[in-house]
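User: I'm curious what two different proteins look like when written out as structure tokens. Can you demonstrate?

Assistant: Sure. I'll show them one after the other, since each token string lines up with its own sequence. Here's the first protein:
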Amino acid sequence: MADTVTRPKYQKGRGGEYAGGAGPLLGRGQVRLRITLGDMPLDDAFEAELGDVDLGQPLGSLLEALFGDESAWAPSDAEIARNPDLPDMRAELNAILRSSRQFRSALQLHVNHGQQAQPDDSIGSLRRARPGADGIPEAALLDLVLEQRFTPLAYSASRGFWQSKDDLLERLEEQALLTLAGSGDTALQGVDGRLREVADRLRGKGLLDESLSFTSNAASALQELRASSSSLRRRYDAFADVTFDSETEAVEIGSGRGVDMRPEVYEEEGLDPVASAFEAIALDDVHEWLDDWAESESPADFFDRLLAWTVEPEPPDAETLDLVIEAGFTYMEEMQERAEAAARASTAVRRARRLDASG
């Protein structure tokens, strides 16, 4: 039987100029680096000459040396003159690697026109070489494609909120099904697959009976869940719309053009940013994503996608976050004072009308 040929996942541009060699390049050599993200076209790639490098070093070490937080490497002035966006592109790659180190995301590496790569693969084994006139490679192209997948469940577990991401997944699924069952629907009748597994767990905990109907324990659990969700919204929803000016350090709340900083504030307040966002926000839309959850091959991947927004942004520094939190709570206090003043004014008006009517 003939060997199965696996086609490269990415085949951007023409692969003829540089060809894969029969074996890894050894020693030292000139390397040109090209990086694209996912389906990004080659015209938008990060490209730089690395000069003379050790071809035996692991790919992960090279990326850390080029784009890590401690890296002093930078593209040459000539390269930046040709592509002024290179410094910003390098900063983006730095943020991607940092996100991966923090378990906010997972990276998958591919060689364009080649195989999937691993961080411990040597550079020389991944290169595509351009042969010189004498047949000896005169240059090597390290042509990488990076895929980034956000992983909020792993991030939450890494921060110590859960023993494992599986524990968090179980909590999210049970809260979702509990909310669905408490909405008055008959959706739990006849459920199968993953939803049936979750329903059986709830039944084992005394929250559903044999017919998958609510028990008194479930009613209490749902009441607690709704109270927790309401408390989160009441205390933190102001942080759903935050604008921060880094030059003036001015914070604006509720402008209509800000960013959602609730996950960052949740965590700063000692709360699990992922589970809290699920309770306060995602559960309200359970009917909208129920079918996608039920049909997903991997529930963990589904909830990672659903909650990716909680870990996607680059987290602000501590000083900025302090300013945001102070401004947000001040804003809510002012809104509460205005509401109380309006209520007092309304009460005074009603009393005056009753006095006029009685007079």
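Here's a second, unrelated protein for contrast:
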Amino acid sequence: MSIEVAEPRINTVDDVIAFAKPLGCDVSKDRLVPPLSLVAHEGGQMVGAALCHHDGYGLPTLDIVLSDTADPQALVRLLIDKVLLKLQAKGIAKCKINTYGQTDDSGFWSAAQWTGSCEPDAA
């Protein structure tokens, strides 16, 4: 099955927040920026999200949340790259990234070949 990634619609924001909360991500609806966020679905089920939000002062924060059914390396890379491109289009060169769900393993980031750079793949 293929994964579909799209911005959360205004009527689905509550569902996205409800998906993220049991995985440890407690983002506030009033701080979420839906046009800079993404939700991943596979077979009609939500499997991941990249939730961009702000505190009104510093850098935006990007919370990456994955369910246990998602392919973590491919999905995280896809979500981060797409959101970083959105941020760069708005003139934002950096963000803070938090991870929840399947991304907690210390070997996860090296297996995903993540360098920590804010330069997204242009693919």
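A detail about the second structure: The chain has one domain: 3-111.
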